[in-house]
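Example 3.2
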Amino acid sequence: MSDERLAVSAEGDVSLPMVDILTGRGFVTGKSGSGKSNTVNVLAEEILDRNQPLLIVDTDGEYWGLKEHYSILHIGNGDQCDVRVTSTDAETIVDLALVERVPIILDISGFLHSEDAQEIVHRVVRELFHREKTLKEPFLLIVEEVHEYIPETGGLSDMG
């Protein structure tokens, strides 16, 4: 896997090292409509094509289309989700993602209260980081609209 590369453009003219994508940190930025979500979707497809696990925190319900071509578990609180979850399911979600290596879309767009959505994301991500330290398996966490969790004025809450 260390030499394997991922194509991340529609034309396939940009490639990135797979191990760096799965073990590093990065972000996709740009103005509205510039193709950020499409770029991340292409990246997710490349990773899924290689049977690598990932967890996508989907804030706007944009990633459910991945289910048309991939075996991916769509969880959240909306009618279109495979399974409805709450923050009390965080450990189970992380077990599925890290131990069972099940690709997951955590769709928080269906939660009526933003506090409920933030609580499940907080618990899942906290558990994911805690458990990954001991498992040391390559794993990709994608968080759409991550800027919503980071305050403009500096300083981070537990959620950030």
